[in-house]
């Protein structure tokens, strides 16, 4: 412990390392961690961080560009049913071999944690795209059994308007049940020509998501273009604006995109970074007791920003406003690919890259 | 009369000439004709075709590319209220000078026909576009006072997906009242973020339109890209497919556009021309008595095709099917810019170009 730290000051230490290009992680009820690696491995890390193993039964993934095995999350009733959800990019077949689709599957983790079985694809983004960029890919399951999936616009500038088109999955959040069926009360379930799974539209590349425990609302973080990263409280059936309104601009030239930064009928973000580009990976709501001052704060991991942003909110949970924001843990100098609250209320930060680790942030007097 | 013609054979003759790049025409109850010229003149031609005059009071139009003063139509109660409707492209102001918007206005034609007054803009396509292509621009008024406007996708390949986006007017038909207000029963009138005037989506460049007198449905003709011209019976609130499904392909390369020629949730056209490109201008339902064999047929004027296509239909008016089609009047060798049924049941064909004319098609025994 550094000499200048109080006992309740947050301290960062390496919890586990040896991870290769990880993307998502999730705690299991026993405190052990599931971690995805983009090239197609699902790892399990013991609750003390000392043992790491690979889970068998993962499908082949298409890991070109930013794709591959992406997120992992668990069922609300995981303790009894052992169900996990995985997102990944899957190459097409035959003539469609150059395309890939964001795909979401459910599987059952064996009791000994060595493999997954009963693999079932729940969702596939069709048609696929010819790159592996702006994939979205984050999963969030609500306590009442809805699975939200974030989907990016797949980057191609000439196709970005698909984020506004209800006939495409690009640039959307979607909501299905954990068995893959589509809820009748989805906003476009009955609209001829619309994808019934769509929950909201007008997103660029949302790669962070959680379901708020009190409101059931989906909160997301999304990558803007050059500048214009956003946090959004997603509204059922509504239009969050990309690419019509954004606080960002085109790469390199910073040419204007769309029509401005706001417009009637387009939902404004809860928060945004005009510049610089911080590249948010995931976000969480902190509900732990270890850091009472952080309770109810939202933490956003950032890649380019190499920090974790902390947001203090005020107002009702379904109509929040930001009253304070600060960048934390910049001294780590790490791109943060995912973050979670551990069972003990510590923060766990998953770093990015070919040689990645998990950093545990805990009170100085509570280190493992 | 050619010696080889029967008395009831259709014969073409010049009704009027001296028109400069005309676009639309409409008969008034007294048999005289209103004709637009793209550079901004509204002409009136007497019922016998002999006198032609210019109507004063037309706004300045932006006639770059295919734009300018486009269509003209009259109110169902024109005989008593003298109201006319005009569509045209209008340049933006200030910073938006390089853009133009399809605009629709209403005005009152003076009793002597010399000028229009009480000019009122009813609709403006905002934001504008930086070209004057794929404008749409056809007007059709229903007997019960709804004004339909066809709007093209504005051509830019990177923007064509706007035809699928409810937040844009591009690639839509819209429906307003003849006073410019938006009917509450428009399909997206209550949808946050959608343009409330939208009646249907997924059109490329619809430049032909009529309201069917029995069903009240909007029938349109639209230009495809290279190939893929279509006739559509428009369904309220539904998706007619462009650019996701089309029978056409990209110019020059004939590269594939979208996903194919049909898809669940996308309305199929009533008829299409895969190749060659005929470029439909306008279409009408023939209801006259002069050619009994044509009654209930749909006639489509074509530009590139230099002919008028006649379609025989069967089935209910709201679920028709094509049973026969033929190209007529190809011997004229004229690009047909508009066509109308005259008060006497003759067909009037408006030709295209800087030196254009109106051709009257009538029974050989009924020539003026």
Automatic annotation (TrEMBL), chains A, B:
Residues 19-360 form the Glucose/Sorbosone dehydrogenase domain. The keyword Oxidoreductase applies. It comes from the Bacteria. Its EC number is 1.1.5.-. The keyword GTP-binding does not apply. Keywords: Oxidoreductase. InterPro entries: 6-blade_b-propeller_TolB-like, Glc/Sorbosone_DH, Quinoprot_gluc/sorb_DH_b-prop. Gene3D superfamilies: TolB, C-terminal domain. One of its GO terms (molecular function) is oxidoreductase activity. PANTHER family: ALDOSE SUGAR DEHYDROGENASE YLII, HEDGEHOG-INTERACTING PROTEIN. This is Soluble aldose sugar dehydrogenase YliI. It comes from Variovorax paradoxus. The lineage of its organism: Bacteria, Pseudomonadati, Pseudomonadota, Betaproteobacteria, Burkholderiales. The gene is yliI2.
